[in-house]
Structures are given as structure tokens and as C-alpha cells.
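Running this now, will post back.
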Amino acid sequence: MGDERRHATAVLLPAYQAGPHLLAIIDELRAAGSGPIVVVDDGSDPASGPVFDGAAERGCTVLRHPVNRGKGAALKTGFRHIAEAFPGHAVVCADADGQHSAGEVRRVAAKVHETGRMTLGVRAFQRMPLRSKVGNTLTCLLFQAVTGRLVRDTQTGLRGYPAPMLGWLVSVPGERFEYEMNLLLEAARLGNPIEEVTIATTYLDGNASSHFDVVADATRIYWPLLRFAASSRRAVRVR
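Update: finished.
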């Protein structure tokens, strides 16, 4: 029982305008013997209601935002709930649009429990749609330039965190897509190690289900990088 407790993992699925892919990953996780699954409905339209009802019928905890608040806010809602409802559980966050398999979720969870560290599921860039490949490559290069840390996939949605990290996760600023970049930058600033696990990501219809806004959300992601670089230069001058 003690060993099971040490390796307990909750899966967190933030979702906006969820489709049938959400239920498919839930079914796959359940078939693989997953622990608790928490779904956050981030203010989806009523048309997605049957999907979230289906998640609840499958035994998932479904948390709801009355309006769309952004991926960062949805993740924080999930983290707070898991810390309270499932204390001691590590958390693996996965996308709700069919990109990640249950096997990949389990591999990331295993790495988290093995190392006790933040773990990223790193996608194969050669299999990405061109838009995603170019954006990820540029962002990784910028991240390395401003932090000195090599992270091979700064935009992955498959991420694992050990239980003691949950309080820190909700303290990091950001409500939308910039939140996950802020996490990486703050980890780099604090000197926290970041583990990586290579995954084979599936893109459906060229990633057409993504809610990433090329202009607005890209700006949200690059702004923290520029701010981090500026603060680093100021720190060097002060010394």
C-alpha cells in the first residue's frame, strides 16, 4: 500500500470546446489502469456538454469554469483540486485533443516518480505540422539563449510534476498559453532540473483542433522570454 501511495498519479486534462477525442483518451487511460482523472471544462460552449457529461459518467472529476479563462487558469484549477482531493499524488497534464496516448502518459509519470522532477514529454519535431515545427524550433532556441538551458520542446502539453511541486505550480503567474512558458522560465531561474521523455505525438487533421491563436498566444509566449532576458541583463549590471 505504501509503495502504491508513493507512485500514485492523477491525470489532468484541461479542455476547451471538447470533442470525442477527450472521451477516447479517458477510455484509454481507464483501460490502462489510470488513477484519478480530473477534467477542467474551461468555459466551453453548450455543444460540448455531452462530452463532459460522458467524462463524468466514466468516473472523472469534471471541474467547470463558467467562462473561458485560458489554459493556465484551467491547469491551476486542476492543480488546486488534486492537491486537496488527492494529496500525495503526482500529476501528469495531457492535451484533450487526441495528441497523447495513455502509454506516453504512463511513461512521463514513471519518470516523475523515478526522479522526483518536472518531466516534459518531448515530441518528434520531424512529425510536426510545419507551423508547429517552425514555432517550436524558434522558441527552443530563444529559451536556450535567454536561460542557458536546453529544453527540446518548450510547447509540449504533456508534462508531469511531483506532488510537492503543486503549491509552486499555482503560484507561477499566467492564465493562458504563456503559463507553461512561465513555468519553464521560473524553473530555470530557480535552477530546478527538468527531465525529458521522448514521445510520438499524433496530430489529427494537421492539428486543426488546436485553440492556439498564432498572433495573440504567440505574443503571450514570447513576451515572458523577452522579459526574462531583460531582467537577466539588469541582474548582470547590478552585480
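The CA atoms of residues 147 and 189 lie 8 Å apart. More later if anyone needs it.
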